[in-house]
Amino acid sequence: MELLDSLRQTPSQDDTISGHYEVRRLLGEGGFGHVFEAWDAKLCRSVALKRLKPQADVLHPEKLINEARLAASLKHAAFVRIFAIEGQGTGQSIVMELVEGQTLGQFMHSGKADLQAALDIAYQIADAMDEAHAMDLVHGDLKPSNLMLEASGKVRILDFGLARHIDPQATQTTTLCDLQGTIAYMAPERLMGRLPDTRGDVYALGAMLYEMLAGQRHFAHLNGLALAAAHMQATEPWPDLPESVPPTINALVRAMTAHDPAERPRTMRDVREAIEGQRTLVMPVPALVVDTVPAKPPASIAIRLQVPVKRAMLAAGAVLVLGLGAWQGPGLVNSFQERATATPYSEATSMQAGMEALRAFDQESNQQLAIKHFTTVLAHNPANAAAAAGLSLAQTLRYLGDGRDETWLQRADASASQALASDSQLALAHVARSWVLEFQEQQDAALQAATSALNLDPKNIMGMYGKVRLLMKAKKFDLANAALARAMQMYPQERVFNTLRGTILFRQGDYPGAEQVFRTSINMDPRAVTSYAYLNQALLRQGRTDEALQVLQQGLQVHPNWELYTNLGTSLFNKGDYLGAVKAFEEAVSEKKGSPGNYLLWANLADAQRWVPGQNEASRASYQRAISLLKPWLQRSPNDATVHSRMALYAAYAGFKDDALRHVMQALAAAPELPDLRFRAALTHELTGNRGQALVELSQAIKFGYPLNLIESAPDLLTLRRDNRYQQLLIDIERTAKR
């Protein structure tokens, strides 16, 4: 009562909240604050007021406002809306949306949740947290009492009190006394002192999903410090879930709750997609749905929430509105009829849909769709070799698009092995094996597997594509062009072969020819964002900067993509807009829109950061990140000239001169005639103080076709270009061209 009375005081009495808020009841409390229901007399609505406890005010007056700012920055519908901050000094309160319903903890107390409801709840949480993580925010205290289920079954996430910007360098630490989350849902590394991060949130969600499906939490017989000790010391996987739970979900929960953070799914997006693949197998066809909120929960949740009479009447009104809308527009009727009509499972239909998605495999959404369809088939028939092979191909593509996350390549390897074990005479199984071997850097074995596939099926599209790609990697362009000509004759409308043709022309220095081919690719499929990225590069190599930027903007309107952001950053960098380039490259390495595991993107970011005042240390850190991501590649491909040349350049920028010179020598020994390698060698020598050798390498780069306009716009060569020896080099090149 004392606290309620203090909140009812007017601003002049206590300098706290405005007088038009009437506090009605205490809703709950946490370690630092109380939450009340209040009536907003001005706007005539119920709200929630959160205020720090009096004893916490002195030590943590800024905590409340930080929480409000973090929560207000989140746009996903699952996060509670922040209306205002009232009061001054240590008497501030957050005014927020009042969420009605019950907590996930109350929901789980009634017993084990059915599979459909549990997956739907977990999906909604993963979808919302994916957005938060993309903004470099973690919750750090996900637990059943911080999750509300509305009467409709919609999940709402409460209390970002522990949220903070991620500390990527792990420079901060904490102690057990500071931990405010519930131990049962806290990752082992958190219990041992690390600050919250994204994989800690993944662990918490995995622990809750386990509890929903098992009917009790892990180590249910322990509490307090004994429970914390058990979580910290137990390195074995969590016990299997009941047999009624699909093996894929059991494996997902085990991965999410892995003791080692590196063994957990990398992002909430991965968790969401894994759950989505299973929800399609267990979810009944929805009834007519009014709202369009993703992943609307099934009726099984809503029934257990005991919908109030008033809310039920509103729902009835919504159905009436829907009826009127359907009467006025036949298209709407058809849309809902399609959603309300059950479609029986068909293995042939699912296989066909999966293969169709693979045909446009350079579109990320199609990769996800292919994984979904092939997973569905394998859930019904694990012996389907074609589905296993298709799944392997889609997983390899995810490996390429997800910044070379080894988890995807390992999955692809396992799926390809499963396909060959099921049917060694299936061409697609050999194609899948070829693709995996290619990115395991076993090029000869990969080419042999591709040849085996085409011996079994000479018209296999994926096999032909893989073989051409392998020949290009080996720089056997004559053989690649011959194989490509056969493929394009068989499949003249397949855009991917057209794109390969443009790539070969680009690598051979025929930039006008490449431009025309990439324009044709876009005309064939305007949704293919990679074609915009390739066309941009071809235009840049011809010095047509404005056109190149326009093409990128067209692609970004189709779909934001790390390749497009990378090329945009490069274009802005070449124009001298270094701050704009940094922003573009930051998008390229972001979790939501980019590919944070791609070393090249971090190097691009580092390049731009060097030219922005005050970002030298950030630049060095980005180069070191690029080097760390590049090292595994070098271990797999110790003779790869491109990898050595990039490692040389990054080492030079990071200040490791000896490493830089060693790598540049290895690069040139392996591929002395590649113009890009010669240019990187010139940059490396300039950065390490060897101007004479830098000029020699620039001369060779120009000789082998590196564009002079890119040399003239390179900021790191500004001082070199003022050297009289460089001017003489240009004169000699011009004389040679006139002969």
Number of strands: 10
- The shape, in one word, is globular
| Residue windows where pLDDT falls under 50 for at least 5 positions | 1-16, 162-180, 283-343
* Beta-strand residue fraction: 5-15%
Query: Strand order, biggest sheet?
Result: 1-2-3-5-4
Instruction: Report the end-to-end length measured between terminal Cα atoms.
Output: 97 Å
Taking the sheet with the most strands, its summary is: 5 strands, antiparallel
**How many helices in DSSP terms?**
37
What helical percentage do the residues reach? 55-70%
Rg for CA atoms: 29 Å
Mean pLDDT: 79
Structural class, by secondary structure, is alpha+beta
Characterise this structure:
The chain has 739 residues and is α+β, with helices and mostly antiparallel strands. Helix content is 61%, strand content 6%. The protein contains 37 helices and ten strands. The longest helix is centred in the last third of the chain and has 21 residues, at 616-636. It is globular, with a radius of gyration of 29 Å.
Strand and helix layout:
Layout: H1 2-8, H2 11-14, E1 21-29, E2 33-40, E3 45-52, H3 54-57, H4 63-72, E4 82-86, E5 93-97, E6 102-103, H5 104-109, H6 115-134, E7 137-138, E8 147-149, E9 155-157, E10 164-165, H7 188-191, H8 198-214, H9 224-233, H10 247-256, H11 268-282, H12 299-304, H13 309-328, H14 330-340, H15 347-359, H16 364-380, H17 385-401, H18 406-422, H19 427-439, H20 443-456, H21 461-473, H22 477-490, H23 495-507, H24 511-524, H25 529-541, H26 545-558, H27 562-574, H28 578-588, H29 599-609, H30 616-636, H31 641-654, H32 657-670, H33 675-687, H34 691-703, H35 708-713, H36 718-721, H37 724-738
Antiparallel strand pairs: 1-2, 2-3, 3-5, 4-5, 6-8, 7-10, 8-9
Helix pairs in contact: 6-8, 6-11, 8-10, 10-11, 11-16, 13-14, 15-16, 15-17, 16-17, 17-18, 17-19, 18-19, 19-20, 19-21, 20-21, 21-22, 21-23, 22-23, 23-24, 24-25, 25-26, 25-27, 26-27, 27-28, 27-29, 28-29, 29-30, 30-31, 31-32, 31-33, 32-33, 33-34
